[in-house]
Amino acid sequence: MIRFSAPPSEKAYRLVLPIVALALGACQDQVEVHNERAFVMGTLVEISATGVGAEPFREAAGAAFLEMRSLHDALTPLDGESELVRFNARGHGRWVALEGPLTELVPRALSVQRASDNAFNPHLGRLVALWGFREPPFPGRPPPEKAIRGLLEAGASQPALALRREGSLEGRLEHPGATLDLGGIAKGFAVDRAVAALREHGVDNALVNAGGDMRALGRRGERPWRIGIRHPRREHHVIATVELRNGEAMVTSGDYERFFRAEGKRFHHLLDPTTGRPARRAQQASVLGPRATESDAWSTALFSKGSQGLEALGPGLPGLVIDTSGKAHASPTMRRRLHWRSEEILAP
Ligand code: ADP
Ligand code: MG
């Protein structure tokens, strides 16, 4: 997910580090691996690379972070100047030009929305704000029933964004309950842009890890980049590893990223558009694929649908779901890629 928050506290760094450690790069072999870290899009982003000099790598990583920062500035719902907020501010029922990265990202988000049967919904902005998941501290109790129902009746979670090309690309929000919120896809998009920036700077072997949204380029010396998938309830426990091929992405969404507890339940930031409430079919969902953008959107969709969503992904996007009882489910293409480690959770 993407956290649009103020500069990180030290605590935030500590929270993110264990996830980064799951990019299993630091083995005891002879390969020289360079690393650069920066806090971008509300998460600690780590870029690792091999086969490049230290100085050219530093420059390339700097360019990648800059690209991610500019995407954050365009896509954050918290800054009145962002292209996203400016689009939403024009209200519903009228055609508004899409600006900056929205021109590429919104059509891609709508494709996943259609293909996932609205499980990924890129205009849940008002519901996300109502639940208070935009930035910590989270509210500690769910919003009133009436408020949720009111937004659903105002079309908050129905497909509600039309596009047309009148010279430039324009979008129209169809219902008053809907505002654009690209939190479920923006971080993957930023990872793809970071990877493109690295390539442009001559880096051909790298791993970008933005708090669980990962994409690999080339290899880590003699072997592929290897990443770990964490246990949804035990931060430091790796349940399986996957070797990423050149250009491949792996994105994980989990109910432990942003949540609060109330009434004996966990309320988290991944909403089920059919109910307007936190989805209740999974603890964690991971999606492999050729691009982090689509893997990110699909990991959110898969989380919302649970294991029954695996089929909708198709063979080109291998998926893994840990359901609410802690049981693992995977598509056949994912099963072939997983090196299972956990004894606590049985291999799918
Ligand atoms: P993470 O991978 O870190 O768990 P995601 O990438 O899945 O998070 O994105 C979560 C964010 O996406 C939420 O904070 C919210 O802004 C938005 N969101 C929540 N539910 C949905 C949904 N069903 N479809 C699309 N976006 C969603
Ligand atoms: Mg996502």
Characterize the structure shown.
- The protein has 348 residues and is an alpha+beta fold.
- It has a domain at 76-173: ApbE-like superfamily (T-fold, Orthogonal Bundle), CATH 1.10.3980.
- It has helices spanning 10-20, 54-75, 83-89, 102-115, 125-131, 145-153, 186-200, 292-305, 310-313, 332-335; strands at residues 34-40, 43-49, 96-97, 161-166, 168-173, 206-210, 213-217, 225-230, 238-244, 249-254, 259-262, 265-268, 271-272, 277-278, 284-289, 319-322, 328-330, 339-340.
- The strands form 5 sheets. Strands 1-2-6-7-10-15-16-17 form an 8-stranded antiparallel beta sheet, with helices on both faces.
- A hairpin with a 4-residue loop joins strand 13 (271-272) and strand 14.
- It is globular, with a radius of gyration of 19 Å.
- Mean pLDDT is 93; it is low at 1-21.
- Bound molecules: adenosine-5'-diphosphate (ADP) and magnesium ion.
- The site of magnesium ion (MG) has 6 residues, from helix 8.
What series of H and E elements makes up the topology?
Answer: HEEHHEHHHEEHEEEEEEEEEEHHEEHE
CATH superfamily of the domain at 76-173: ApbE-like superfamily
Task: Give me the Rg, rounded.
Answer: 19 Å
Bound molecules: adenosine-5'-diphosphate, magnesium ion
Under CATH, the topology of the domain at 76-173 can be stated as: T-fold
**How does the overall form come out from the CA principal axes?**
globular
Question: Which CATH architecture of the domain at 76-173?
Answer: Orthogonal Bundle
Termini separation: 25 Å
| Poorly predicted runs | 1-21
Structural class: alpha+beta
